[in-house]
Automatic annotation (TrEMBL):
The Alpha-D-phosphohexomutase alpha/beta/alpha domain, residue ranges: 14-153, 184-286, 295-407
Record-linked InterPro entries: A-D-PHexomutase_a/b/a-I, A-D-PHexomutase_a/b/a-I/II/III, A-D-PHexomutase_a/b/a-II, A-D-PHexomutase_a/b/a-III, A-D-PHexomutase_C_sf, A-D-PHexomutase_CS, Alpha-D-phosphohexomutase_SF, PGM
Record protein name field: phosphoglucomutase (alpha-D-glucose-1,6-bisphosphate-dependent)
Gene source species: Mariprofundus erugo
Molecular function terms, GO-annotated: magnesium ion binding; phosphoglucomutase activity
Cofactor(s) of this protein: Mg(2+)
Keywords: Carbohydrate metabolism, Glucose metabolism, Isomerase, Magnesium, Metal-binding, Phosphoprotein
One family name in Pfam for this protein: PGM_PMM_II
EC number: 5.4.2.2
Chemical reaction(s) catalysed: alpha-D-glucose 1-phosphate = alpha-D-glucose 6-phosphate
């Protein structure tokens, strides 16, 4: 077994996006491509000699090959110990949990989240720092800079390692520990939630379904929901993780989680339904014939947090990404909590949590989480909801109706246009920007425009500034229309239009969001000229 130094040349475009480096599997399969990136990470993160690295992924195609290479490179570069999930599996929140629990130097997570998997689909890798959260921009920029100058990488020359059995062995002076991917995480969940109350709820005739979408949460959900909490076998559907996620698109929304949606909107629908994504950090919450928007879900969790043991002492503050609706802002105002508005991307919450400024965070993109880890956490959100339901003993829909009565309703919807030509997408945003000085003071969708800008964020903890985080058209009554390009796609551009309108009158809380927002939707089309500029006349996905 010897350490090899392999000569290499830079690849174009190894710039980490919203959540690490995501490319087609075929791109990652090019000789040296992944190794270059991993070496660039190791060259950017400081002195880790003798320290611990956590490695795991969502089990998608190429996960195993990638992990073999990373372990051999970690040993060659001087890590003292690697903790790797059995079979190469760790959900993203579980990886965050393992990094924190073991005081690891950092972790490499292999995932392209909810993007489809398979030989012709997507793969991804990201580095998380010692707090368990995604590397901040300073680190990802350093990684990108290293990828552009790389000349060689270090790797141990040896046969593939057996990662399918829990246990430990040595690799060129580095300790490899193959760990059970579920147990640390399950223990953390049990420390936060009232498992006894949830067990009683599930034994009382309350019915639920959890859709793991053939992705990583299958084993976690089976162990926790069906194992610890006694939900009947079959509660977890699509629970066998597959390398191609069963050919599906494991994004828990109304479009892609159709198996679950059919059940929850069918005859004999269960009381509660939930789904998680490819790597287990996203969640969708449904009641019987009822969809909870992620923005509302965050607001409900904040308003009910003290019902849950882990948050019974109260929460420090809340944060949401800019495009997420302001529903949680209203809860924060009524509880006297600080509320932060950050750019899209979970990494922006890390500093706020580390500084103890916020406890709960959420994004419209089906992400919710708290300071228990530094990633959003799908199953955690499901357990939080179950704990609230066990305590309140009311249907999901009633909890929402009651919430809106108290705080008003922020009607909200996101319209995505996927796979748009990049130049056309840029033209749509430019078209809106070109009206920044003329729109304020005029009327759109029956409301007065108060301000237009490119959202910019100054991190209150470290003072770093992130510019151009979305084009905003803000209205005097608090309504908002936001245009943004996705930072997580791997082909073409995705335009996201986020629409929000506030309704205080409880008599008008029962509308379908698309109906309530119809005038905003029309105004967004006319302001952006999306149809003539892109040739698209309807969104690919509506959430
Ligand atoms: C990932 C990130 C989230 C982000 C989401 C959407 O899930 O972890 O923080 O909100 O992608 O990002 P996008 O740039 O595609 O809108
Ligand atoms: Zn994800």
């Amino acid at each position: 077994m010897r350490i090899q130094t392999v000569s290499t040349e830079p690849f174009e475009g190894q710039q980490p996006g919203t959540s690490g480096l995501r490319k087609k599997v075929k791109v990652f399969q090019q000789p040296h491509y992944l190794a270059n990136f991993v070496q660039a990470v190791f060259d950017s993160i400081g002195d880790f000699a003798g320290q611990t690295l956590v490695v795991g992924g969502d089990g998608r195609f190429f996960n195993r090959e990638a992990i073999q290479m990373i372990l051999k490179m970690a040993a060659a570069n001087g890590f003292g110990r690697v903790l790797v999930g059995q079979g190469g599996i760790l959900s993203t929140p579980a990886a965050s949990c393992v990094i924190r629990k073991n005081k690891a130097f950092g972790g490499l997570i292999l995932s392209a989240s909810h993007n489809p998997a398979g030989p012709d689909e997507d793969f991804g890798i990201k580095y998380n720092i010692g707090n368990g959260g995604p590397a901040p921009e300073g680190v990802t920029e350093a990684v990108f800079a290293h990828t552009r100058n790389i000349e060689f990488y270090n790797i141990v020359d040896c046969a593939d390692l057996d990662l399918d059995h829990v246990g430990s062995f040595e690799l060129a002076g580095m300790q490899v520990e193959v760990i059970d991917p579920v147990s640390d995480y399950a223990e953390l969940m049990e420390s936060l939630f009232d498992f006894t109350a949830i067990r009683a709820l599930l034994a009382s005739g309350f019915t639920m379904k959890f859709d793991a979408m053939h992705a990583v949460t299958g084993p976690y959900a089976k162990a926790i929901l069906e194992g610890c909490l006694g939900a009947p076998a079959g509660t977890v559907m699509n629970g066998e993780p597959k390398e191609d996620f069963g050919g599906g698109h494991p994004d828990p929304n109304l479009t892609y989680a159709h198996d679950l949606v059919e059940i929850m909107y069918g005859d004999d629908a269960p009381d509660f339904g939930a789904a998680s994504d490819g790597d287990g950090d996203r969640n969708m919450i449904l009641g019987n014939h009822f969809f909870v928007t992620p923005s509302d879900s965050l607001a409900v969790l904040a308003a009910n947090a003290t019902r849950v043991p882990g948050y019974a002492g109260g929460i420090a503050g809340v944060a949401r990404s800019m495009p997420t609706s302001a529903a949680v802002d209203r809860v924060a105002a009524s509880l006297g909590l600080d509320c932060y508005e950050t750019p899209t991307g979970w990494k922006f919450f890390g500093n706020l949590m580390d500084a103890g400024r916020v406890t709960l965070c959420g994004e419209e993109s089906f992400g919710t989480g708290s300071g228990h880890v530094r990633e959003k956490d799908g199953l955690w959100a499901v357990l939080f909801w179950l704990n609230i339901l066990a305590d309140r003993k009311e249907p999901v829909a009633d909890i929402l109706v009651d919430h809106w009565k108290q705080f008003g309703r922020n009607y909200y919807s996101r319209h995505d246009y996927e796979g748009v030509d990049a130049a056309a997408a840029a033209a749509v945003l430019k078209r809106v920007r070109d009206q920044f000085s003329t729109l304020p003071g005029t009327e759109l969708a029956g409301r007065m425009v108060s301000l237009c800008d490119d959202f910019s964020y100054t991190d209150p903890v470290d003072g770093s500034v992130s510019r151009n985080q979305g084009v905003r058209v803000l209205f005097e009554d608090g309504s908002r229309m936001i245009f943004r390009l996705s930072g997580t796609g791997t082909s073409g551009a995705t335009i996201r239009i986020y629409l929000e309108s506030y309704e205080a009158d409880a008599g008008r809380h029962g509308l379908d969001a698309q109906v309530a927002l119809a005038d905003m939707i029309e105004a967004a089309a006319s302001v952006s000229q999306l149809q003539p500029l892109t040739g698209r006349d309807k969104p690919t996905v509506i959430t």
